[in-house]
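hi! just following up on the protien thing from before. the input was this:
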Amino acid sequence: MSFQAYIDNIQKKTGKLPEDFHKMAQEKGLTGPELTATRLAAWLKEDFDIGHGHAMAIWAVFKSKGWAEGGKAKAAKTRIDPPEALQVTTTPGHDYTHFLRANGRSADIPDEQDVYGWLVGSWDLECLYYNAAPVSLRGEAHFGWALEGRAVQDVWIMPALGERSSNSDRNTNMYGTTLRIWDPSVQGWRIYWRNPVHGHFEDQIGRWSGKDVVQEGVRADGTATRWTFTKIIRPDSFHWLGEALDPNGRTWKLEGEFRATRRRL
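and the predicted 3d structure came back as:
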């Protein structure tokens, strides 16, 4: 879906243009340096039942027109020093991951909506394209059920653990995680990808599309994204494509491509 299509759909549903939302946001005191994409999306969802992807299109307009300052609150001038000694308390016999991981899918998720459970386990990655340029790199990915089985979380690592070093090229360096959470209100999965190595963050909605898994979202600058798990041969392999919509609104540009093979014991 193109960026303009998001705006057109919002107008069709609500009868309002981005300028109308800006005026109403001003009336509600939602503009200024304290406004964040999260606050705007929550308001649009509550008052207009606008989903996350469409809300991010409105946020992109707010940013481009200078109606929002990116939600960067002014830093406090005062400093709070940490205590001299910090006592860390943990539950005996359990680390953090014990409370995160789950043994399987929650009964809250219907069988036909189990979009990501087949990915659970470890995979070897062959990266063919990254940051919109051809590459030849190896990596790995690890998936598991989390949050009482209502989410699937992963870790994508490139270069692979055995090949990583402090000198790894940051532009092709990936040590990130995706949290995929089932949301019955949209009958889809909310996708949150975070790679802190070079500040790559994406929010999307994922669903089955025929035999493929397609995730769609909109970046803060208004660029539509589409990530696809395709050529899925469960449980052994898949082909992953990451695409972004060209500013012309018609052409999808390849940004990333991986081939994955499941690891065997």
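The longest strand covers residues 133-146.
Strands lie at 121-130, 133-146, 151-158, 174-183, 188-195, 200-209, 212-218, 224-233, 237-245, 252-262.
cheers
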